[in-house]
Amino acid sequence: MDKKAATQPTLDPQLVTDASSRLRGLLLETKKVIVGQDLMLERMIVALLARGHILIEGVPGLAKTLAIKTLAEALGTTFKRIQFTPDLVPADLIGTRIYNPKDAEFEVELGPVFANLILADEINRAPAKVQSALLEAMQERQVTIGHETHRLPNPFLVLATQNPIESEGTYFLPEAQVDRFMFKVVIDYPAFYEEMAVVERVSESFEPITVQLTADELREFQAMVDQVHVHPAVTEYAVRLTRATRNPEEVKLGDFKRYISFGGSPRASVNLILGAKALAIVRGREYALPEDVRDLAPEVLRHRFILSYEALADEVELEGILSKIIAAVPPPHIHLGDPHRPSRSADPSGSRA
């Protein structure tokens, strides 16, 4: 037996089942207010567990802000909403030094970013300096005010929203910052009966939201995610998916090469695995499966590769290319009864033996 595998801590299946039940209770609590948008709500919980950040894009009126506020109410954590505007300055986000004439010295006034959950509403309306300040907070989980560095609370999660249909008074998000988001979730209009339910709920008072998880319990679940087992074949599958966005010819999609300027970075592969581990806990398993990686692939990859000018000229849509790339990478087969051993009927690359 591999020494590393022998010393690796294993999760108690019952603890995982209990955690999954609690997390689904959190999801159901948010559903008291939010109708539909199941994928968005699940990705928000996965991002919480995986210590990632999430960018939600959709037209106005799709309950992006309401969903985040409702999730924050169901969590016993601190929550701050920051409305991003073109006249925002970094001090409005992270805080500043204020002179105290009584003591004849400067004091630090911490900004709203010092909370467990941050709603960055209409994030693409903020100028470059504010984006840079938020970038340090997201990546380093700390901010610098003057000559002092201040650690942000733990857990810390940025849930950002942006409106794709307006361009006046907005700024393109820097690629470096977009890459810091674990997920980019694109949401669409609700179905007919979902919209009927929305109208009915708005005409009545919402059910009160009760706290389902405390910050300490959330940190325990995050530590549990760290122990989820990932088979090497699952890791290889995640890397193959990311590489296919850079080199589509590797999956026999060479015609797409001219449409892609830049593909996903290794951070995409990392986030596929981190997200898969968190999703495994949500689904009540102590090990990740290829299906977890595949389900998260659109949200992890869509904001990490850039189409070329030729793709824009030919009116090629990013989502169409992405779906074909994901479909072209076959997932490996893992024995459900033994997550540590690949199936004999297929090699780790997914091709039949």
Describe the structure.
This protein is of the alpha/beta class. It folds into 2 domains: 33-213, P-loop containing nucleotide triphosphate hydrolases (Rossmann fold, 3-Layer(aba) Sandwich), CATH 3.40.50.300; 228-328, Helicase, Ruva Protein, domain 3. It is built from 14 helices and 13 strands. The chain has helices spanning 3-7, 13-30, 38-50, 64-74, 90-94, 128-140, 175-178, 192-202, 215-226, 232-246, 266-282, 290-301, 309-313, 318-328, and strands at 54-57, 75-76, 79-83, 95-100, 105-110, 117-121, 142-145, 148-151, 157-162, 183-186, 213-214, 260-262, 306-307. The protein has a 5-stranded parallel β-sheet. A two-stranded parallel sheet has the order 2-11. β4 and β5 form a beta hairpin. α9 (215-226) crosses α11, α11 crosses α12 and α12 runs antiparallel to α14. The protein is globular, with a radius of gyration of 22 Å. It starts with a helix and ends in a 25-residue tail after the last helix.
